[in-house]
Amino acid sequence: MTRKLADDRAADPELATGMSAIPQAPEAAETSRYYSTQVQMRPTKGCSRVVTLEQFIVDTFSRINEDGVERPVHQPDQIGGGGTYAIIGARMFLPPRKLGMIIDYTPESLSKSTRDELCEYGEDMWAFRIREDAHPTARALNTYNPRTQHRGFKYLSPPLLLTPRSLQSTPFNNPALPSTIHFISYPAPRAELILSEVRRLRYERGWDPIIVWEPEEESLNVMQRIAAEIDIIGPNHHEITRLFGLTIPPVAGESRLREIYTQACRKLAALQPRIGAIIRCGHLGCCYAQKRSPSQPPPPGVASEGWKEHENEGDIDVDFDVRWSPAFWHPGREGYEAKIVDPTGAGNAFMGGLAAGLDQGKSLDEAVIWGNVAASFTIEQDGLPHLSIGENGRELWNGQDPWLRVEEMKAERGSCVIERTIS
Question: Where do the Carbohydrate kinase PfkB domain residues begin and end (predicted)?
Answer without folding.
Answer: 337-383
